[in-house]
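Ticket #389: bound-state structure for zinc ion.
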Amino acid sequence: MITNYINARIIDKNSNYLGCVTVNDKIIVYAGPESDCPYKEPDNTVDVKGYALMPSFIDMHCHLRDPGYPEKETLETGMRAALAGGYTTLCAMANTRPVCATPDAVKSNTERAEKMQMCRLIQCAAAGYDLHDETPTDYAALSKVTRIISNDGVTIFSDEFMSNLLIASTDYGFIISTHCQPERHIVARDIALLKKLGGNLHIGHISRSETAQMVREAKAQGLSLTCEITPHHLFAHDLDYKVNPPIRTEADVCALIAAIKDGTADCLSTDHAPHTPEDKEKGLAGISNIEHAMQIYLKVFFDNNISLKRFSEMTSYTPARLLRMNAGLIKCGYLADIVIADTECKGFIEKDKMISRSHNTPFDGREVRGKVLRTICGGKVKYDNGLLG
Ligand SMILES: [Zn+2]
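RESOLUTION: The complex was predicted; output attached.
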């Protein structure tokens, strides 16, 4: 089955041009000017009407709360919200109930997600049993079923535990995604250990100016590491809403934007963390934001004059490279994981219309930019809001 997407504003890390994209089954088989397209008699033609056609987004960091907290979110509700937000690959953190600490637990979630045929799921595994930095999980076995090991939600304080985890990440080829609180202290410690021991370090949700500077300096010294920024740490400052790490100051937001501009920051991740109203009242940290992440990012990028190519690099290309996926570019031979979006329209966050099971956001009524029109995973339309016709 061959589909031509014509009149598309094709945007990825390398390009921004008007053209045609041909999808055959699960794969992009052509991207370029429509006049040069070799597929003259496709089964389907979709007129994209000049809207943006980009690689769909890959979230290196979200919480789907499954198993254990169906009142907050499930694989199914989280993936439905994700697809509405333009995401087709999700790395779900391991702080479920029970904690995802064994190969069986990881496989159980990935197999369930495969049957649902919504998003691609990478179920992260815990680094320590019960997310403690005491007894390590079986890194050799876990690295065969997942790409990311993380105690996210809980900081690894033990230097010895972190050292062994870094060494294992080289031995077994997995990525460590860290949760750093206190942020400056733990990021400094982890960079020092990385310098000594090597390893595959991905620093989760950096939020401070000083942390961005530490990553910048580490990269300048030739260290190989990556980091991510969330929507809420870019979209808010001095706001009393409980997230971990906390919302910071305006100076920190400016520093994060500078880190996006100069390549210090690698990925944009959502840290989608759904909670019930009761749990938020109890003081639990987290924001439900996967369906608004693109709109927040586009607003921030537009307001700060950062290109859509850079946006695509941080939401698709770099995560795909880290996850070793053949995705993240609109290019012949790549997976047909695609989002079609209006990147220019104004919109507003409407809490009551959220698809996620949890509606915990401080951004109700805030102006954002852009709208997802259609989300395609493996060549199949998984979300369509009807606006494209
Ligand atoms: Zn975290």
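RESOLUTION NOTES: Residues 152-153, 179, 204-205, 244 surround zinc ion (CB under 6 Å).
TICKET STATUS: resolved
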